[in-house]
## 1
Amino acid sequence: MKKIIIANWKMNPDTELEAVSLTQKIDSENLIIAPPYPFLGAVRKSQKLSKLGAQDVFWEAKGAYTGEVSVTQLKSLGVQYIVLGHSERRILGETNDAVVKKVKAVVSLGLIPVICIGDGLSDKIAGRSEVAVMDQLMPTIEALKSFKSGKIIFAYEPVWAISTQKDAKPDNPENARNMILKIKNKVLDEGLKGLEFHFIYGGSVNGLNAGGFLKYDEIEGALVGGASLKPDELTRILKI
Ligand code: 13P
């Protein structure tokens, strides 16, 4: 099976020129590139094989929402995938409630949400990782019950494994696989008919460790942050 590799550039690079140059270096069939909003158009024009993603969206369709961006606007630029509920957004105040509204807006318009869920370091230390993950997962499952078709990606991304966190270490691939299995079983238990689900891992994935995660059938891809800005690293991941 082909794996899904998503390059989450976060708030990088600084200029459109750099975004275009990076796109040209990493452009590849199995890749989804999620640049910052201002570079979406330029990245789209430089893509020959990869697909376009966005890092967030607002749930309302239009109107007086200064600074926000709608699903329709992103769609008009060629965006097909939208990352939702990333821990870096949750840290800035994004709630489960907001993520649910965004999921509904994205699926309603036929785009693919990449719903991020993950436990924090304190959850891990307290042995409540699964509880924390389920707390984020369940509201989105409820939200999806009103849809009869669509493709959904869940990304298990433990916050403590994100490379920019202090003392970050990638999850052990076996643990990541086990948590993904728990997420998958929960989703499948709910009997959401007509929807297609995929499950990927994120958190310090790089050219050296990607094989350890992607060798498992249950881990259908990777959400890559830091390494997605380094063409050599990303190329290694894509080769795997
Ligand atoms: P890193 O790959 O830099 O750990 O980032 C993971 C991430 O947050 C991707 O969304």
## 2
Amino acid sequence: MDKFIIGGGRPLTGEVTISGAKNAAVAILPATILAGGKCVIENLPDISDVAASVRILHEMGAAVRMLDRTTLEIDTTRVDTTVVPDHLCRQMRASYYFLGSLLGRFGEGTVSMPGGCDLGPRPIDQHLKAFTSLGATDSVEYGMVSVKGEPLVGAHIFFDTVSVGATVNAMLASVMAEGMTVLENVAKEPHIVDVANFLNTMGADVRGAGTDVIKIRGVEKMHGGDYSIIPDQIEAGTYMVAAAITGGNVLVKNIIPKHLEPISAKLERAGAFIEEYDEAVRVSRPGPIMSVNVKTMPHPGFPTDMQPLITVLLCLAEGTSIVTEGIFENRFRYVEELHRMGANIQVDGRVAVVEGVGGLQPAPMRASDLRAGAALVVAALAADGTSEIDEIEHIERGYECMVEKLVALGADIRRVSRPAETRAKAF
Ligand code: EPZ
């Protein structure tokens, strides 16, 4: 149970290099099962969700070799089971991607029912709709989700709701189905395109990823492939907000500017000054933070994963901002922690009314999920004084070397281990 100790009130200056995209990595790693051969995956972020995915692959019989800090060689030739160990599934939500890749290669797969988390219910009905449309049967019992079907036959699938996970899982399951699969009302995030590009590297025929319609022509067999994962747009956005809220000047390197367009546009409206280069953006904030209204939407709308971050920035804006969460039912739980810092936010369901205040006060806080935890770090960096953030394991699921990267930008942040509470120490 570690925590961060943060001495805020210092402008961040310098350079930060963005790591590989978490939400691409946790899909591409399970997808290697489809190869039945050797893949080399580069630019993997060193985060616990990636470690969990690798542990699952290894437990299932894949041969995994680290070629360097961010590059893994994964040989799934000898994957010898179609059941993902329950105790490993619970470590991260994205274990449901193993359903799609196991079904696509072996005609069956079983994983633990993915947990909900602090964002509200996280159903998988659209994933199951994709699998059953391809001819598989599904069963959900004893907390396990199983799908089975062979051969799978291509189908025309129109999703009832835009879902990143279901779009990815439908691609994974259909790459070796018989005939053509057409997916409509799909997610278009950069990591969807990344997964499609990786599948094509392994011999699949996936076209249209990133548009409203994805077409997958089934192939007989897949093979290994080498691939480098795109940079993480949300990690980049996090450091962009940290630069803006502290009134600093930061060069955010190893990014794809197009992936940041919805984030950059909103930050500029809020008073940030953003200079764009080929693979970097420089963020500063010469004047006041301005109030803006935000609604999170599927890509190319403003990303839901940036909602906690932009809300923290708007806590210090001149005026009132309205933040509407268009994707998840309950993604404002972190606001209670911001109230401890003197933020003036009123939440009603999916809408938060943010009244700008003159400053945030340091406070002891607790991270509840990945992006909420990152938002508390950013808030603490802006507050004059020392804050503590507990349960930082949530943050380290998706942010590589956050302490080192922030210290390099001049932040006063350190990680301390807090011994687990024991009765003997309770009194
Ligand atoms: C992915 O979650 C990301 N996780 C999330 O990032 C991200 O917030 C989310 O996409 C939206 O961009 C990974 O990629 C591992 P969805 P996912 O399916 O796939 C509803 C982070 O911080 N829905 O796009 O689970 C769902 O309830 C994490 O990195 C159904 O109704 O999200 C939600 O309201 C947090 N039925 C909406 O769709 C389904 O079968 C979008 O969810 C699936 C989803």
## 3
Amino acid sequence: MKICPDIQTIRKTVAGYRRAGNSIGLVTTMGALHDGHLTLMRTARAAHDRVVATIFVNPTQFGEVADLAHYPSDDARDIDLLKAEGIDALFLPQVDVIYPPGDETIVETTQLANMLHGKVRPGHFRGVATVVARLFNICLPDAAYFGEKDYQQLQVIRRMTRDLHFPLQVIGVPTVREPDGLAMSSRNVRLTPDDRQAATVLHKSLTKAETRVAQGTTVQALTDAIRADITSEPRATLRAVDIVAAESLTPITGAITDKIAIMLSAEFGGILLIDQKEITP
Ligand code: PAF
């Protein structure tokens, strides 16, 4: 695996792949790799001749300095995992490579970034769109792979890619879960054993929601039922239950008759976790 710390090296590497007629899949990460990331890598691997991964803990998407400071990081371990997955090249830049001194350009999906989780984490999706646009421009892939777990992020990236005419496909990959249903996340390692156990309430409630939708329900009744599920877990602090139209994320009311997305966020011992599910009635 070729490790590229700067833009010139990764561009030259990718240009070589392209000259050889290879298609290129990209998986962007902030490191602390888990099976969810490795599933993205394997999905890209199955579809492309070459897979490029990035590890960059993007400071502009963290609201609180403490959250950034606590973000887990172990490059040596991550590099071993990427090598084992047969990744061809890793872009591993320092902050000033992505954000050069005097940097002042931002990318923002003005509606999608500022609703739902974007209201709870102001500036977060602007930071995501800004870094992903830069990574796309640097790595120039044919397709990029993102987890459906970060549902709003996926929609922001799809919209940004379309609006800025990036010549690449954005592929959403289903959420990878622990055997007890907890969505895989780099944050899970920071949970205490009791909070880790309590956090399964998110997936349990989403599974029940599927049955509730199949039986026929309204947005309000489903929201109330999910709130009741999560608040019945004493270790959970519910942050948001959003039931919206799938993909557009527009608000909906009344009986659920079209495909919806349920987006949940809750804290367990101060660690914010999210989960989501698309449901077609
Ligand atoms: O999902 C992530 O890990 C990050 O938000 C991303 C897409 C790599 C941008 O920093």
## 4
Amino acid sequence: MPAPLKVALVGIGKIAVDQHVPAINASDDWELAATVSRHGTVDGVPSFTDFDTMLAERPDIPVISLCLPPVPRYRYAQAALMAGRHVMLEKPPGATLSEVHALDALATEKALTLYATWHSREATAVDAARTWLSDKTITRCHITWREDVRKWHPGQDWVFEPGGMGVFDPGINALSILTAILPMPVHLTAATLEFPANRDTPIAAQLTFSDNVSAEFDWRQTGPQTWDIEVETDKGPMALRMGGNRLELGGTHLTGQDSIMGEYPALYARMAELVTTGARDVDLAPMVHVADAMTLGRRITVDPFHF
Ligand code: NAP
């Protein structure tokens, strides 16, 4: 068996602890060789508080996985590529489309892997949904993505700061699935964005796309959370529930499970494959829809939001 790939995890916060560390530790392909974080550490793993110091002192680590929020991420990704390291980006891959294009060009120039991950595309039922829809005519598609920002982003003010994307932070997960499963491309035609009076990003959004596709995202849902994509076709209805992890045909459960725990192991397996084969994977289709919504969306002001 080949030696595991060494990876440095940067930004030891909620998603690093909840998903990245367990996925890396469970894989024979990977060794968590260092962390970089101003406050966070992982037991038993060498830790750095400064990224440039880690790059200088650990030339043996070929892969950097960036779990920072999108706004600070670009500088780290650029420095890692300049230092000859392969880079894995959390979603959304950047604060703007053009900065991710710049990273993609740099990775190409340096012949390094850049992987813009979309964890929801690795949900267990997404491939089955794509296959089932591939020879159907879609007559309607509606996304309902309602979750509790206080549960998933406790105290994280960056989601409401410019570049934090607001409700599009989870909404882009739905769009990553949509752009993976539909047999035809769609484009945004209208949007309404609800901005809390005291915040810079939306807390809710309603989107209308071409081809009778629509979406509602809301971050104010308490109690049961909803991550559904319901599709009507010429051969009957299909529903992807639990964020792409459960597939129903005609109301009957066909495949999948009510768990998201397989998504990050699949991302790291894909990253190992990309590094081994010298490939890149940077698909910005989900983020184009978010940028379009921010461009075209009608803004309305709603109640202030406090964590
Ligand atoms: P987080 O816990 O708020 O941030 C992760 C870490 O990034 C922080 O602990 C912090 O570590 C570092 N960081 C924050 N701001 C920084 C800055 N300005 N400069 C340098 N480092 C900074 O966020 P998260 O929830 O893990 O989300 C991170 C990314 O993962 C986001 O893109 C998010 O969309 C994605 N994601 C999150 C979830 C979720 O459920 N929360 C799920 C899937 C994907 P130090 O202070 O220790 O440096």
